[in-house]
Write the structure tokens for this entry.
Amino acid sequence: MSDTQIHIIGAGLAGSEAAWQLAERGIRVLIHEMKPQKFSPAHKSADYAELVCSNSFRSDNHQNSAIGLLHQEMRLAGSLIMRCADAAKVPAGGALAVDRDEFARRVTEEIKAHPLIDSVCEEITALPDASFGEVIVATGPLTGEALAEDILKQISHQA
């Protein structure tokens, strides 16, 4: 086990998967998630990896679809997201579709049960400075307004 702790901002699909993959490799993780303290207009649940637009991960055909091949590669890499999606699967032809609530519940339970993953309910409103340590920003399209503004400000100062 590493003494290093990686901070992850956001517990959506990317943040949850990043936390899982790091922890499975012996690295301590601290997830900073704004829910349930604060919800975006699209969020309804306090669970991690909440699907807000669609319950479909698209094609699951690994022989005829690049998306399906990616699913298969993620499964081979020990993906938490794919394991939970497979467990919460609902009929959808050749697509991988899930029961949204069941999927998010499973991801949340697995993340919270992992001994190397801790989480804190707090909104990060600005990119942390170097003293914070290693950080993965995984907030996606539902980034809080203050953090999104700070990211834009940081990017424009570097351009």
